[in-house]
């Protein structure tokens, strides 16, 4: 049975270089397959999928302990996508990890597909929660993390949420509960792309300084460039290695449309339409920036 086990820590510099190269290749495939899926519909949450690809590549190609052919294995690490509309990237990551067939990505958001536009646990192997109703993911992650601790299960729970989601009061209620219960097996990953449906997150309702707020709630925090693969690896490993019982938060500063320059430059990035003659350009630019 196939199983990916997290590597011994701390890694040597040579080992880290090898791992980062592997992650870089995985990130390219996640972005490429996000574009492949989006092209099926001609539109979607493409900018977000491209921006979170590096975080997901680090998790699914390097950090998570899982069994691709047994996605409900009790000993697995749980990766919860609170922001269900980022499903394009999650499905690509699950294909990269071998949980779902890569060919199935061509059915994205089609009738009778297991890959709905917003990720749902009842449809897709490897999807832990039905996200998309923003502000609920961290609460669910709390329950899972607390249950695992009470069972004596050493698995780690990762909850990916957005900077816009920090405007939901329930997120901060969950932050307080996690600290109260000492959920040191929980890592919240904030995708800080400074964009939501109505504009820049920092303009609509700024939550800066985000790190200081989580620290005030009793969390251990690291903030990194969300496209610095080595930095992401080190941050995850530092957070897991901390000796205290604080929940952990990793804030990843990302760029919408990352890897495809003409999409990065678009003004309207939350839900994006791409013209039929632009897909080849998107793939060509992705190959150039990933070389």
From TrEMBL:
Family annotation (Pfam families): Transketolase_N
Residues annotated as domain Transketolase N-terminal: 29-285
UniProt-listed InterPro entries: THDP-binding, Transketolase_N
Gene3D superfamilies, alphabetized: 3.40.50.970
CDD domains given in the database record: TPP_TK
Source organism (scientific name): Barrientosiimonas endolithica
Family named by the database record: Belongs to the transketolase family.
Transmembrane segments: none
Name recorded for this polypeptide: Transketolase
Keyword entries, A-Z: Thiamine pyrophosphate
Cofactor: thiamine diphosphate
